[in-house]
Design a protein that fits this description.
Layout (H helix, E strand, L loop, with lengths): L1 E5 L4 H12 L3 E6 L10 E4 L13 E7 L5 H8 L4 E8 L27 H16 L4 E4 L2 E3 L9 H8 L4 E4 L5 E2 L1 E3 H14 L5 E3 L6 E2 H11 L6 E4 L21 H6 L6 H14 L10 H8 L4
Parallel strand pairs: 1-2, 1-4, 2-3, 4-5, 5-6, 6-11, 7-10, 8-13
Antiparallel strand pairs: 9-12
Helix pairs in contact: 1-5, 2-3, 4-6
Length: 302
């Protein structure tokens, strides 16, 4: 297939570009050329908000829009003169208000989520514009992505704590639940959508099984060859000061995805791959937060 992938140089979009190059597709990436490109792609070097004539007259079997965060991003691309057969937009589960009953389903009303704020509102507006202009577009709403090329300080944080033999400061009793989706499963699901063209257009995507934060940290430590010593932190302490997820638990109903793709990648295998990659590429995680500094200043007694 001839594919246009927005981004292509960071985490999800980079992994996706590599996946479809390996599959043998003709992959074009749309970015500003400020980072190293994936081997085998063809670069459309431009700002997606001002594409000029770089895409005019071009036709793609599918656009995989991974870097649209606002309605402007969608509008600029659709107005660029490009044509396509399929359009898949990676939106977010942040479009569901935290007051909705859980697990969140695709037919629930969407709106502002007080945890995610404008990020979710902007993703929802991007969905609205895309649906109005491309009614047959597919919209995917993931929870937390994980995998190699992760640039946020998530899995890397417990990995670092394990490698430094640090105790782990856990929110409360560690029972808060997390739901993940591996980037390889995203690519597999995109393949299914492009091959089968299901009538359903909006899909929650993610692992069927959720994990508690305690289970997640234990797994990260085990992969690093360590066993965590936990220290419980009172809920009165702002969680994001010392931990890599917000104090917000939610679960997506992914039954629609599961009908088309019953299995997802084993988390332990995927995290092990990510750990090995991270050890060789620690500087790739550039959005680091000072969790350890906070812990040392507020929790560790001299």
């Amino acid at each position: 297939m001839k594919l246009l992938i927005t981004g292509g140089t960071t985490f999800v979009s980079k992994f996706t570009a590599e996946h479809f190059v390996r599959r043998g597709d003709e992959v074009f990436v749309l970015n500003r050329g400020s980072r190293k490109q994936v081997s085998g792609v063809k670069l459309v070097k431009t700002d997606r908000t001002q594409p000029g004539d770089h895409l005019r007259g071009g036709h793609f079997d599918a656009i995989l829009d991974i870097t649209a965060y606002t309605a402007e991003h969608i509008t600029a691309l659709l107005d660029s003169g490009v044509t396509f057969d399929d359009y898949i937009f990676i939106s977010s589960s942040a479009v569901y208000p935290q007051t909705n009953p859980q697990p969140f389903t695709e037919d629930q009303p969407c709106g502002r989520n007080s945890v995610w704020g404008d990020y979710g509102v902007n993703k929802l507006e991007a969905e609205r514009v895309l649906t109005e202009r491309v009614p047959n577009a597919y919209i995917l709403r993931p929870p937390y992505f994980y995998g190699i090329y992760e640039n946020l300080y998530r899995e890397a944080f417990p990995f670092d704590c394990a490698m430094q033999d640090r105790p782990f400061y856990l929110p409360g009793d560690g029972s808060m639940k997390l739901q993940f989706f591996h980037v390889s499963d995203l690519c597999r699901f995109i393949e299914i959508l492009l091959g089968e063209h299901p009538e359903k257009r909006v899909f929650n995507v993610g692992n069927q099984d959720v994990v508690t934060v305690k289970e997640w940290v234990e797994l990260c430590y085990r992969i690093a060859g360590k066993t965590p010593v936990f220290v419980s932190v009172d809920k009165s302490v702002p969680q994001r000061d010392y931990f890599c997820f917000y104090d917000y638990e939610y679960v997506l109903d992914v039954s629609g995805q599961s009908e088309l793709m019953p299995d997802t990648a084993p988390p332990e295998q995927c995290l092990r791959e990510e750990f090995l990659w991270y050890k060789d590429n620690p500087d790739s995680v550039y959005n680091r937060k000072p969790y350890m500094e906070y812990i040392d200043a507020h929790f560790v007694k001299a």
